[in-house]
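As a warm-up, study this chain.
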Amino acid sequence: MTQKQILQFIFFLVVFTSFSNVLTAQSLKQVKPEEVGFSTERLTYLTKTFQQYSKDKELAGSVILVARHGKVAYFEADGYQDVTQNIPMQKNSMFRIASQTKAIVSVGIMMLQEEGKLLISDPVGKYIPEFKETTVAVAKEDGSYDVVAAKRPITIHDLLTHTSGVGYGGGVAAKEWEKAGIQGWYFADRKEPIQETVKKMASLPFEAQPGEKFVYGYNTDILGAIIEIVSGSNLDNFLHTKILNPLQMNDTYFYVPADKSKRVATVYSATENGIEKAPVEGTMVSQGNYVSGPKTSFSGGAGLVSTANDYARFLQMMLNKGTLDGQRILSRKSVELMTTNNLTEAEFTTTGAVGFGLGFTVLEDLGKRGTLGSVGEYGWGGAYHSTYWVDPAEDLLVVYFTQLIPANGLDDHDKLRALIYQAIED
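Now compare it with the structure written out below.
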């Protein structure tokens, strides 16, 4: 091959790669609802209902994205990103997704297993020595408690299923957690790395014995620390390198860059007089330090900010059994395990309708739950009242973002589900 031919080949390769990137960006493109089995007419019920929430000042605004068969059937922004400043909600508005971070971090752990760097059956103490021996607070009849040794080591699988016994600093030993300054899911204001916070947790009494009870808490923050230790990279860099960049989730961050900060939706709180803007200062019920914070603590349990389109790309990867636009993130078998009920003795609910996989709830009995959906559906939500789910039986995913804490019993989640499923016509 001559030098001229080599240069021509390189030029062709560059052009082809650029063209491929353009095609990749077309993933999850929006189509007419009828193309993927939805009724445009019936979807108007969804639009009108959520417009009414904004008009009635029950919500400031929201973004809803519904995709089926890999294409977007419905993508609407309603209401206001900021009511006081009269800034309309946009499809690319950015939201604090809180516990929706957990699914992404759980995928990160499974990737490390696939690379041979850990096993989810491993004890946590193998990577964080402080967890080799842990304790549990056992309540007594007089209201006090005893601190006893854990019956066995906590495993990574326990963390993925929230059966480690680690809560959010509550339970009978809540005062000890309060004294240590570790309570609640909010870490964005902390000036210490997540590994240091997690190591402190290990010395405090947990709420249940490993594997005996579902206790929602710091499990995924601990997983984030494990990712840092095993990968040798901080959680922010790891997620961007291994998940966010490959999936072109270009608007997902622990701390939003200054040039994108104007797109971050304002947090509101539900009150008797309608919604009120949450305070700037504070921890869980506040605007949060997701722009100007110390940028030191990367919370794997509740730290990310994202957009509806970005999160839909992540969910589409899961729905595709681990791949999107030619990027293999997980194997099909890892996705299957993550989206299967992994609970045994530890019950997630008393009804038996819903189980828990590795980072997601999993629907096992449609009738017992009593709302529209399909067996095998998986999902979760976030503290700021966002939610999502994936329905493999319908080849469907839903992302719903709003910023409301507390929500005080608002019925928007149930109506969202009902109005999406009623619009399916095939």
